[in-house]
Amino acid sequence: MSGLQADSIDALAAQVPDGASLALPPDYSGCAMTVVRALIHRGARDLNLIGVPQLGLQADLLIGAGCVATVETAAVTLGEIGPAPRFTRAIRAGAIRIRDSTCPAIHAGLQAAEKGIPFMPLRGVLGSDLITHRPGWKVIDNPFASDDPLLLVPAIRPDIALFHTPLADVHGNVWVGVRRELMLAAHAARHTLVTTERITQENLLADERYAPGTLPALYVSSVAEAPNGAWPVGLWGRYPPDIGNLERYARMASTDEGFALYLDQPREPAEPAPAR
Amino acid sequence: MSGLQADSIDALAAQVPDGASLALPPDYSGCAMTVVRALIHRGARDLNLIGVPQLGLQADLLIGAGCVATVETAAVTLGEIGPAPRFTRAIRAGAIRIRDSTCPAIHAGLQAAEKGIPFMPLRGVLGSDLITHRPGWKVIDNPFASDDPLLLVPAIRPDIALFHTPLADVHGNVWVGVRRELMLAAHAARHTLVTTERITQENLLADERYAPGTLPALYVSSVAEAPNGAWPVGLWGRYPPDIGNLERYARMASTDEGFALYLDQPREPAEPAPAR
Amino acid sequence: MTFRPDELLIAAVASMLDGLQHVAVGASSPVPAGAALLARERSGGAMRVSILGRQRDNPFTDGGRELFDCAAQGRIDAFFLGGAQIDGCANINLVGVEGYPKSRVRFPGSFGSSYLYLLIPRVILFTRTHTRRVLVPRVEFVSAAGTSPPNVYRTGGPYALVTERCIFHFDRARSRFVLRSVHPGHDVEEIRAHTGFEFDAPEEAETTDIPDRATLALIRGPIREEMRDVYPKYVAEVLEGAFARAD
Amino acid sequence: MTFRPDELLIAAVASMLDGLQHVAVGASSPVPAGAALLARERSGGAMRVSILGRQRDNPFTDGGRELFDCAAQGRIDAFFLGGAQIDGCANINLVGVEGYPKSRVRFPGSFGSSYLYLLIPRVILFTRTHTRRVLVPRVEFVSAAGTSPPNVYRTGGPYALVTERCIFHFDRARSRFVLRSVHPGHDVEEIRAHTGFEFDAPEEAETTDIPDRATLALIRGPIREEMRDVYPKYVAEVLEGAFARAD
Questions:
Q1: Complex confidence, ipTM
Q2: What is the pLDDT of residues D104-120, one digit of tens each?
Q3: Is the pLDDT of residue A44 over 90?
Q4: Is C236 exposed, middle or buried (0-12, 13-18, 19+ CB in 10 A)?
Q5: Is D107:D81 a contact under the CB 8 Å cutoff?
Q6: A269 in contact with C at a CB cutoff of 8 Å?
Q7: CA angle, residues D105, D108, D111, in degrees to nearest 5
Q8: Which 177-196 residues of chain B touch chain D by CB within 8 A?
């Protein structure tokens, strides 16, 4: 990004075409929920989600809303809240194609894309049924040793990385702090879309305390300001998850009707305090 | 490091045994010059230097003092000051073994060690004579394509990474800022020794502005406080190189006698102001 | 002295960690976290404990991949895994049962298990639920393999399996669980009845050590307090909840 | 209008950059840096310029490897390399001459050239010194290869060679330099005399464009000021130094 004009949430969503591969972080890492809701509102179709390295509410909402064709991830979970109900149901119904992975294989695939190399070797994993079901993964004999089988995972290059952060600047630099998997996803992806709590006038790269945790504008296509933009999941260092809302979601999303109702009205209508 | 006691410069130098492989940064990245001088004073022998990814004054001093057996690096240079005189002479004399590399191959080798994988694929480089002279490098056919030759560089796992930073804390956490090649070297190395301008009582990992640029104590064997510890090279964001001293070095190190004199007295003796 | 079931579990797991340098714990594992914190307390702070997802005890600054890189570097001595299914060869299933990929019952997924199981020397399997549905003859999907052929690079693997009823040790050479101790109030007969895989048991089964006074004081003191900010519900409901029946 | 030789070089190189999105420059390259800053100025700020080693214009936050990763991602359009030796196939030598590894004359080393030369679409070779010692028939050590067999993954390579005397274009298909223009005050005869490799030249050699008034105003205004903090000596001695001889 080099323009100084922040974009709107809808402008960001418009940059995610149907059929795109879309890298998303887990609930604890920084979720651009406003854009996810805009995608659902638009009726996005055939998205290929990539968990960085796992997924939570964002994936469950998109899957439930019928926006998703495939999911590549180490897990889909609502964490403490429990299983992801729409994901679980879609798997049972065969409504989405799942590409089960493991966290380090996703990180390694993104690193391969980051480095512009076709694959990354990875230790571990051998003997897991994951390999059986991932024809794109290869087990070779380590050319630097003998009789040493070694997994190679191909590069993962998402069309788009989408996430939410506490801070960005008017130059398009985005502070991700220690959540460097977001930086990795942005390096690996063709385009990166970011929502942020706050856009500062200061150049984050010029401040030695912020620069080390900053994704340079070079990698960023668009930034939109979205205060409380991760709600109802939390944002590290800023606000906790809205457990009440998430529990409400888990309950409602256990049925098709409840899920539709939640999409319609994610925030519970304010109720009058019970009379005493 | 988990102890709260900072170590002495000599205690750090004592942890670098003769024959060790020693990863060192270039002059602009953070050089623990006090430890380098202590190693020379001790008469360290047979060190195997690894440039991260290139080397400067530290290497030239160690080579000139006869401490070095091999050098793996993308370059040895004093930058603006000119060529590295002792390095150049040692090459001509065949006094050290050079393993010429290129910056991304060293980063990739360190990343392979960081990931615990035997090698890293790398694009580019094909056609360079570097490959001819590095029997440890392999060119394979990319197993994910056909007729696509691909360089594999083996992991580089230094015995020790040694560098200097602006800040560390009493817990052994070390702030490297945007100089993340230092973090990579520490992840890749078996042991990491650090000198620092200042040791703070605050936990750097607990401050969201410092944590992203902080190497956790987990990787750090020892930290010693060394104010102005990069002198005569500079320290980013803190002080510039002492150009006068470096030019004096370049002049003196062009002869064996001059180099010996410099080692003996790196700082020019204060001269009385000329009488007028 | 009376104790709570989870106090026994925390103490038992902690005793498997004593002397290690670095123990890592997943985010949603209160018993392993409690055990690691207890072991650290007993080490006088010499042990490093990394609790993922916890701001204070999470030492990682290089993104999600650092835990995995760190394990491959040999810098993590112990870790914990669970399993919706665990079999007698210590294979674990975190993916699903009754079909794949169209599983009738789907679990979240393998997370990092497929990798960490092979690279961390002492992996302790923890599953509270000890039934034939969890402890099966053969998992339906191998998320992470309990054992590997000799040519597979493997620096780690299963060490023990801790449940609500007992502790198994894993014999890597024989690829088989061995009953190590039975928690007070349980017996071998019951364990056989609720275990779907075959395992070895000594003639006379040992009883799991009851946590001593000093251990309980630590758990009920500093450990419980340290755990409260990450696991408030667990501390209130379990570690401050009902005692075990007296036997 | 009179101009300095380096003003001509800066303007000539800048014209090879116009329209690009991201130009990266090594730390110790004042002419390329000046050219990139000039091109950025003319782009109205739309072009991104990364000057390595310079705090202000260095956008990288992921350590030394990021430049190389960024190039492999296709996010850098142009870069500059030099060479202690450059040959007619655009191979460059930054390592040494008269023997290897025991070179009688040793240069610093290959830096990132071996890699970036293959991955950045428009690599401009810049060497002030134009003699038969530098421009040789065949480099003694190939730090970075000018051309590659067709099966080699290569998204970049040599684009032009700029010296104190002239500008060559590199014809990748024919693996051969073509004289594009001769700087004012020089001629083809002289260039042939000082060039150790064969090259193609048109019947009538063009003259390198003299920087126009607007370009000179930019160089002598904002560009010179921007360069002053990184290249103070260069600005004082060269960009504020003697003018070219009038011809």
A1: 0.96
A2: 999 999 999 999 999 99
A3: yes
A4: exposed
A5: no
A6: no
A7: 140
A8: 178-184
